[in-house]
Write a structure and sequence with these properties.
Distance between the termini: 42 Å
Shape: elongated
Largest sheet: 2 strands, antiparallel
Radius of gyration: 22 Å
Number of strands: 2
Structural class: mainly alpha
Strand order of the largest sheet: 1-2
Length: about 180
């Protein structure tokens, strides 16, 4: 019974996230006069799009994170990651449009949907990371010490050393700052 409730709650969370975005996409497709055979085909198309795009975005994020960790000197700006995710979203839309016979979208509508999807993901990402950035407002010399410490020790040792060196700073803020670096 616990597994059923856990699965059902995950389904409800995904549904709550999908419904507003899916409704916007459906309205764009409907009011721009794009062809779709039935509303069931349209809903299936949008569900598949969202699920496949979540997987592709996860792969792109993992690839970018692995690249940053593997090549320490490599600096990948956020713009590159966003462009890759936008291209991934556009490819998913084009592939689904090609393989599903019951729906046909113009390239302009695909671009608009991919752009809205990217803006929505940036907005959600900003909401997620906004809390962490607020807690890590430390003095520049403390942040500099953290940078030097992380080059010589693990992050747990660095937290302990910074807490000993700066006892007036709460340990939680030091942990947030070390994770941010």
């Amino acid at each position: 019974m616990k597994d059923f409730l856990a699965g059902f709650s995950i389904f409800l969370v995904i549904l709550a996230l999908f419904v507003p975005v899916g409704l916007v996409y459906a309205l764009i497709i409907h009011f721009t006069g794009q062809y779709y055979a039935s509303i069931i085909i349209l809903v299936l198309f949008l569900l598949l799009f969202c699920y496949i795009d979540i997987g592709i975005s996860t792969l792109i994020d993992s690839f970018l994170q692995a690249s940053k960790e593997r090549y320490e000197g490599l600096y990948l700006p956020k713009l590159v990651g966003n462009l890759l995710e936008f291209c991934g979203t556009l490819i998913v839309l084009s592939a689904l449009d090609y393989f599903m016979d019951g729906i046909e979208l113009s390239i302009l509508i695909k671009l608009v949907i991919a752009l809205i999807h990217e803006i929505a993901s940036l907005f959600l990402e900003g909401l997620e990371t906004g809390e962490e950035v607020e807690g890590a407002d430390l003095a520049p010399e403390v942040m500099n010490d953290i940078h030097h410490c992380l080059k010589q020790a693990s992050w747990t040792d660095c937290v302990a050393m910074m807490h000993e060196k700066y006892p007036h700073i709460p340990k939680g803020e030091i942990i947030h700052a070390v994770r941010k670096v």
